[in-house]
Amino acid sequence: WCPEQWDGKPVDEKPLFYQGVEEFSEGVLMGLTNEVQAIRKKMEEMVPGLDLRDGCTLHEWYLDSYAGQMTDDSSLRMCMNTNPGYHGLTHPCQDADHGKFMPDLKYRYLTEDVPTGMCFNKGLGEILGVPMPMTDKVL
Questions:
Q1: Which residue from 13, 6, 15 is spatially nearest to 86, judged by alpha carbons?
Q2: pTM for the full model?
Q3: Disulfide engineering: 93 pairs with which of 3, 7, 101, 132, CB 3.0-4.6 Å?
């Protein structure tokens, strides 16, 4: 649902959410997780003895959380694409004219996760002087 991947017009089917992650989306997710890792590193440098290693990358989180369940765990995208728990889950959408679909921009992923996650990360990055170009792009 971004200008690089979508023309803004209703789509015929609700896109797959996790299983629909392709190279572009994986790049966005990797950019976001790398920015969080940069914040983690900066905080550990600033506070001697601070251990934030539990703040792992998104790929590491999938490996820890779903070990043995994915048929391919070689990359973040493949973890998401091959996790059987996500089979058939689609993007939150609203019905549009003639049986087509548009993204539901009021769904909790945006109304809850963005202000409590991404905006927090962005603010922390600003305070610490950590560049957040992917977060800026997504927001």
A1: 15
A2: 0.89
A3: 101
CA distance linking residue 58 with residue 134, whole number of Å: 15
Under 8 Å between Cβ of 94 and 102? yes
**85's tokens:** 């728990």
Query: Which residues lie across from 90 on neighbouring strands?
Result: 16
Helix (H) or strand (E) holding 101: strand 101-103
Beta-carbon count within 10 A of 119 CB? 13
The single residue listed with the structure tokens 């992650």 is 21
Q: Max alpha carbon distance in the chain (Å)?
A: 60
Predicted local confidence at residue 9, as pLDDT: 93
How far apart are alpha carbons 48 and 93 in whole angstroms?
46
Read off the tokens for 118. Answer: 């991404």
- Percent helix, strand, coil in the chain, to 5, is 50, 5, 40
